[in-house]
Design goal:
The chain has 4 helices and no strands. Helices cover 86% and strands 0% of the residues. By secondary structure, it is mainly α. The termini are far apart. It has 2 domains: 34 residues; 82 residues, no CATH class.
């Protein structure tokens, strides 16, 4: 191999190799998103975020109304993110997120009450 050919090979490799690595990473992330555990984790994060947002924005609203608003938001955001969620999955994840929020709020109020009484 001549010096010119070697220089050309190094140049092509320096151009092609980063593109191949980027493409491999993209494909890997795409495949991981399609795994059930990754999909479930994304949905749980989405639902948790919506529950916190609805609670913060609509604290005085009744529970069933908050659930309706959260359900609409989750359905739209999941659709925008190309995630499918069945009504049963949505209901279970929503109830779990509300329960987790209530536990964290209860723990926070207990902690603040304990620290103010000392």
């Amino acid at each position: 191999m001549t010096s010119t050919n070697l220089d050309l090979a190094v140049l092509l490799l320096s151009i092609v190799l980063p593109l191949m690595v980027a493409l491999a990473r993209f494909v890997m992330e795409l495949l991981l998103e399609r795994l059930p555990a990754a999909r479930r984790a994304r949905l749980e994060t989405l639902v948790g975020t919506v529950v916190h947002a609805v609670e913060q924005a609509n604290a005085g609203m009744a529970g069933p109304e908050k659930k309706r608003v959260a359900t609409q938001l989750i359905t739209q955001l999941a659709k925008d993110a190309s995630l499918t969620i069945s009504p049963t999955q949505l209901d279970v994840l929503l109830e779990a997120a509300v329960h987790a929020l209530n536990l964290s709020l209860s723990a926070a109020s207990t902690t603040s009450t304990t620290s103010t009484t000392r």
